[in-house]
Write a structure and sequence with these properties.
This protein starts with 16 loop residues before the first helix and ends with a helix. The strands form three sheets. The chain has a three-stranded antiparallel beta sheet. α2 crosses α3, α6 runs parallel beside α7 and α7 crosses α9. With about 300 residues, the protein is an alpha+beta fold. It has nine helices and eight strands.
Length: about 300
């Protein structure tokens, strides 16, 4: 990867960086809305999903920013982190990838502002001194990171999760974690399958009960695993959603979660289809919400599977 591969969008001007980062995310969604109106399957949406699969524990806002600046990124870290933790160095001439980093500071128990902003606010809380306040999230700041392709040095240690992409090993773990996701699951033989051409179904129950996921068994274990994730996503996202008009929206979100989780575990999910016409008429803020649901649900499923695999 050349330096230019990570400079499609840059935020080099510190005076305008915050506004430019916000406007870039808004412009990305505006472009997506245009593609929704044209009823096409978006390459840039799939590009974001690819980045989200590499950075499943990042917020959708940060993966969106990474996508716009360096769509081929796979692992990012700060300048010093590459040096001190991985014995790698950022190559000369590389441009930083800017993301939002949390600001953790002492926080007023009432207005949740840091002491300096608390003093400027109308909050009258004074029961405890600022020195005694607990720390919490008070905001975000632009922070520079670099992709591994922008660095050189010692090779990274192999992560255990990279060796777990074989669906034959993934499938039993997906079945094991169903209870952690508040789902009951059944793998049904083709001869006993009663749901037509559907690969899987999710039956929503009352809030006090687990949803029931049924998946038609097949020889292709990778496809079976992705179908399971797809139905888990329905169970986690759509238990309180009703109405046939929202069906296409629900399918798009579940398919996107299956794509991210499948790619994370090194399954080939290139056959996924994302028909963004389902979002036609949605306001940009609603699309931001959907991106958040997709990324957080995929991260939740990945986390519970990784935890079980780490214990084996």
């Amino acid at each position: 990867m050349t330096p230019n591969d990570c400079s499609q969008v840059s935020f080099d001007n510190s005076d305008t960086r915050r506004d430019e980062m916000h406007s870039t995310m808004e412009a990305w969604v505006d472009d997506l809305v245009e593609e929704v109106d044209d009823a096409v399957s978006s390459e840039q949406f799939q590009e974001w999903l690819d980045v989200q699969s590499c950075f499943h524990d990042y917020s959708y806002r940060n993966t969106l920013l990474i996508t716009r600046q360096c769509p081929n990124a796979t692992r990012v870290a700060g300048y010093r982190t590459w040096q001190t933790e991985f014995d790698r160095h950022v190559k000369e001439g590389e441009s930083a990838i800017w993301i939002w980093a949390p600001i953790i500071a002492k926080q007023c128990p009432e207005c949740e502002n840091s002491p300096s902003y608390h003093d400027q606010s109308d909050c009258e809380y004074d029961e405890t001194a600022p020195d005694e306040w607990s720390k919490g999230l008070v905001g975000f700041r632009p922070a520079p990171v670099f992709d591994i392709s922008q660095t050189e040095g010692e090779p990274l240690p192999e992560l255990e999760t990279e060796a777990t992409g074989d669906a034959d090993g993934l499938l039993p773990v997906l079945l094991e974690v169903a209870s952690s996701l508040d789902v009951d699951v059944e793998i049904v033989s083709p001869t006993e399958w009663t749901h037509g051409d559907a690969k899987g179904i999710c039956q929503y129950r009352s809030p006090a009960e687990r949803s029931l996921v049924e998946v038609r068994n097949r020889e292709n274990s990778a496809a079976l695993a992705v179908t399971l994730v797809h139905e888990y996503a329905h169970a986690r996202l759509h238990g309180d959603v009703t109405g046939e008009t929202d069906r296409s929206k629900r399918e798009l979100e579940a398919e996107a979660v299956g794509y991210i989780v499948g790619r994370y575990f090194e399954l080939d999910t290139s056959g996924s289809a994302f028909y963004l016409a389902a979002w036609e008429g949605d306001e940009p803020e609603a699309i931001f919400d959907r991106l958040e649901w997709i990324s957080s649900t995929a991260a939740e499923i990945i986390a519970v599977v990784d935890e079980v695999m780490g214990d084996e």
